[in-house]
Amino acid sequence: xxATQLTGAEHDRIFRKFADYAANYDAYRGxxxxxxxxxxxxxxxxxxxxxxxxxxxxxxxxGKEQGLTALTD
Length: 73
Fold this sequence. Notes:
Elements: E1 2-6, H1 8-21, H2 24-31, E2 38-42, H3 47-61, H4 68-72
Antiparallel strand pairs: 1-2
Protein backbone atom coordinates (compact mmCIF):
# COMPACT_ATOMS: atom_id res chain seq x y z
CA UNK A 1 0.00 0.00 0.00
CA UNK A 2 1.31 3.44 -0.90
CA ALA A 3 0.03 6.74 0.57
CA THR A 4 0.71 9.99 -1.29
CA GLN A 5 -0.10 13.34 0.28
CA LEU A 6 -2.19 15.53 -2.02
CA THR A 7 -1.46 19.24 -2.39
CA GLY A 8 -2.82 22.28 -4.16
CA ALA A 9 -5.94 22.03 -6.29
CA GLU A 10 -6.13 18.23 -5.96
CA HIS A 11 -6.07 18.51 -2.14
CA ASP A 12 -8.80 21.14 -2.25
CA ARG A 13 -10.96 19.13 -4.66
CA ILE A 14 -10.79 15.92 -2.60
CA PHE A 15 -11.21 17.74 0.72
CA ARG A 16 -14.32 19.44 -0.65
CA LYS A 17 -15.80 16.06 -1.63
CA PHE A 18 -15.01 14.69 1.83
CA ALA A 19 -16.44 17.77 3.58
CA ASP A 20 -19.62 17.40 1.52
CA TYR A 21 -19.86 13.82 2.83
CA ALA A 22 -18.89 14.64 6.45
CA ALA A 23 -19.90 18.26 7.06
CA ASN A 24 -18.31 18.41 10.51
CA TYR A 25 -14.85 18.44 8.85
CA ASP A 26 -15.65 21.71 7.08
CA ALA A 27 -16.62 23.22 10.45
CA TYR A 28 -13.46 21.80 12.05
CA ARG A 29 -11.32 23.31 9.28
CA GLY A 30 -12.67 26.71 10.28
CA UNK A 31 -11.73 26.18 13.94
CA UNK A 32 -8.12 25.07 13.52
CA UNK A 33 -4.89 26.50 12.19
CA UNK A 34 -3.61 23.00 11.44
CA UNK A 35 -3.28 21.84 7.87
CA UNK A 36 -5.73 19.00 7.37
CA UNK A 37 -3.77 16.65 5.18
CA UNK A 38 -5.39 14.54 2.47
CA UNK A 39 -3.82 11.36 1.14
CA UNK A 40 -4.41 9.15 -1.87
CA UNK A 41 -4.08 5.47 -1.01
CA UNK A 42 -3.00 2.97 -3.67
CA UNK A 43 -3.19 -0.66 -2.70
CA UNK A 44 -0.59 -2.80 -4.39
CA UNK A 45 -2.11 -5.62 -6.40
CA UNK A 46 -0.29 -8.85 -5.68
CA UNK A 47 -1.14 -12.47 -6.43
CA UNK A 48 -1.96 -12.87 -2.73
CA UNK A 49 -4.36 -9.90 -2.66
CA UNK A 50 -6.05 -11.09 -5.86
CA UNK A 51 -6.49 -14.58 -4.35
CA UNK A 52 -8.03 -13.06 -1.18
CA UNK A 53 -10.41 -10.97 -3.30
CA UNK A 54 -11.47 -14.03 -5.29
CA UNK A 55 -12.06 -16.09 -2.13
CA UNK A 56 -14.11 -13.27 -0.57
CA UNK A 57 -16.18 -12.77 -3.73
CA UNK A 58 -16.89 -16.50 -3.97
CA UNK A 59 -17.89 -16.71 -0.31
CA UNK A 60 -20.22 -13.71 -0.65
CA UNK A 61 -21.77 -15.18 -3.80
CA UNK A 62 -22.45 -18.40 -1.90
CA GLY A 63 -23.82 -16.59 1.15
CA LYS A 64 -20.94 -17.76 3.34
CA GLU A 65 -19.45 -14.50 4.60
CA GLN A 66 -18.76 -15.89 8.08
CA GLY A 67 -15.26 -17.23 8.42
CA LEU A 68 -13.78 -15.13 5.62
CA THR A 69 -10.92 -14.09 7.90
CA ALA A 70 -9.86 -17.69 8.32
CA LEU A 71 -10.00 -18.25 4.55
CA THR A 72 -8.05 -15.17 3.61
CA ASP A 73 -5.29 -15.00 6.24
